[in-house]
């Protein structure tokens, strides 16, 4: 499936509104514009093709021109993603640690949690098992069905803006690997804050382009992907949080867990022969399905909505 040039849209800085920028990577489009079927899905791993720029006023890094966000949402809504759900077990393990981090900050009894862009619902499953009352929304129809069939949890199909949650409803709102995919992260964060109770927590996980590993890998950094529109650093996530009415409590490196074989498979484009040899060894040793933690710049932020808890 391919479209014409109206598939691209120009956007200004999402943090300060400025329209002056410095090009960091020019992109690799060579004039042709297309959007592959199934390119926009949770496990999307196409390298970034559009230009990555840095706002000349505030330094926020983002993609412009970019693939039209309405078309991209269509892509997310309709994609089928067996690759992603094949790693559901690893995601549950990751999310158990994530929830423990959140509970350490929360310090109270489990309350109401909203997971935005919940994908196949692994976080909701973990939160439910831990006694939280959980709600989730997810644009992808296939993931919503998967979650109902495999976890017995019903998710609202759509974005947070489609869901019309009431003001100050939730104790915790989570955005796991979501913010960098949204067409307007400030609007998404403000909507999350609107539905949070005063004193409630917003939890965000994002790939940090300012991390040492991102700087070391440069243009080969694994998170420079066509599915990512925005590239936060600690400085820009702090500014976004403040603008949304949040106070950051924790910001730290965030390890995720996947099957050993899958991590090596994803590493092959970067380390080539080394990853192939390691995969053969791991298979030989019977460790293919072992769950291993990996870190390539993922960062966890836990921020609190200003105001007193009622
Ligand atoms: Zn800016």
Helix/strand-derived category reads alpha/beta
Strand content: 15-25%
Number of separate strands? 15
CATH architecture of the largest domain: 3-Layer(aba) Sandwich
What does this structure look like?
- The chain is an alpha/beta fold.
- A hairpin with a 5-residue loop joins β3 and β4 (61-63).
- The protein is built from 11 helices and 15 strands.
- The chain has a 7-stranded mixed beta sheet with strand order 8-7-6-9-10-15-12, with helices on both faces. A 4-stranded antiparallel beta sheet has the order 2-3-4-11, with no helix packed on it. It has a two-stranded antiparallel sheet with strand order 1-5.
- The chain has helices at 69-78, 82-85, 88-106, 122-129, 141-151, 160-163, 185-195, 212-217, 234-243, 260-271, 273-284; strands at 8-9, 21-25, 52-55, 61-63, 66-67, 112-116, 133-138, 156-157, 170-176, 196-207, 230-231, 246-253, 256-259, 291-294, 298-305.
- Bound molecules: zinc ion.
Question: Which tags fit this structure?
Answer:
alpha/beta; Rossmann fold; seven-stranded mixed β-sheet; four-stranded antiparallel β-sheet; 15 strands; binds zinc ion
